[in-house]
Amino acid sequence: MSITPHTTKEFADGLNIAITKYYDDAMLKHDDTDYVGILIKNQEPTDKKTDILSGMAGFGYAVELSEDGDIFYDMIKERYDHTITQGVWALGFALTFELQLFDYKKRTKLLPKLLVTSIKKTIQLLGHRPLNLGFSGLTYGDGKTLFAIDHPNAPGIAGTFSNRAASGGTFAYSTLQSAIVGLKALTNDRGFPLDLTPDLVTIPQSLLFTGVEIGHPSAKEDPSTTQRAINVIVAQYPNLKILPDPWKTSTTAWELWAKERDPLTMLWRLKPDNKYGADEEKRRAWWTSAFCVATGVGDPRIAYGNPGA
C-alpha cells in the first residue's frame, strides 16, 4: 500500500482547521474559576508598550472667608506615577514527521486543549502578581509595596496613610472586622473620606473552612463566641465574598478588597492568539499561542492587607 506523499506545509494546512476549532472551543470554555476575573475588574486594551498609572489628588476643603479675606487658590497635585511595561508570553507544540505519519489523529484534540490550559494558567499567575507581591518584592511609584503602613500622600501634600495591619494576624472574625474598619478609614490625599465598600477577601486555600464559618450567607451568628451573638460582618455586608484563592503563594497573608478597585488594572496589548506554520527542513509542523499584557495598581487605597501570622 502506497502512502500519498505530502509536504509539511500541506500537512499543517490540512490539520489547522481542526486544531483551530479545538483551540477556540477550549479558550471559550470555562472549566475553572477565573480568579483573575474576580479580582481584577478593570481590564482594558492598550496600544502602548509602557503605560503610566497615575492620577490627580484634587483640591482640598474650601476655606472660610473672613470679612476682608482673600479667596485661597488651591493647586491640584499629581500622585506618584507607577509605570507598567507590557510583556509577551508564548507557548507552542510541534508535530514531528513521525507523528504526522502515525500518531497525529489522537493528538489533534489533546494538544490544543493542553496549550489553552497552559495559557490560561499563565494568565492567572500573572494577574496575581500585585497580590502575591503585595507585602514584599514589588514597589510602586511612592517607593512602597502595595500594602504598607507608611504610604506617602501625593508629592507636595504632607502626611502618610496605612492600608495594612501594623502586625500580622491570623485570618479570623476579629481580624477581618479590624481590616474592614481600616479599609473604611482610608481617605484620599486631601483627607476626604473615601467610604469604600468591602467587597472581596482573598485568603489562602488552607483557610477555606475558616472563610466559610465567617462569611457564608447563612452564618448568622458570631463564630468567635459560644453565645448567640449576631454575625455583624454578614449582617452589615451580606455581599462580601470570601474567596479561597489557589493562586495565592502565601499560606498566611490575606487581603480585603474594596468594590471600588478600578486602580487595580490589567492592560492587554494582545489577547491570546493561535498561529501555525511548518519547518520544511526539519519536516515539523507547529502551532503557537501568544499574548501581551501588563498588570499594575495606580492607587493603593483600594485594599487593606494583613500578612498573617
What does this structure look like?
The chain is of the alpha+beta class. It has a domain at 144-265. 28% of the residues lie in helices and 23% in strands. Strands 1, 4, 10, 11 and 12 form a 5-stranded mixed β-sheet that branches. The model is unreliable at 1-5 (pLDDT under 50).
Q: Short summary of the structure?
A:
The chain has a domain at 144-265.
What distinguishing features does this structure have?
alpha+beta; 4-stranded mixed β-sheet; 309 residues; 8 helices
Helix-strand sequence: HHEEEEHHHEEHEHHEEEEEE
Report low-confidence residues grouped into runs of 5 or more: 1-5
Shape assignment = flat
Distance between the termini: 71 Å
Helix content: 25-40%
Structural class: alpha+beta
- Report the radius of gyration as a whole number of Å: 26 Å
List the total number of helices: 8
Write the layout of secondary structure elements.
Layout: H1 8-28, H2 35-39, E1 42-45, E2 50-53, E3 82-85, E4 87-95, H3 97-102, H4 104-127, H5 129-132, E5 151-152, E6 160-161, H6 173-184, E7 198-203, H7 208-215, H8 232-236, E8 241-244, E9 254-258, E10 264-270, E11 275-279, E12 284-297, E13 303-306
Parallel strand pairs: 1-10, 7-8
Antiparallel strand pairs: 2-3, 4-12, 5-6, 7-9, 9-13, 10-12, 11-12
Helix pairs in contact: 1-4
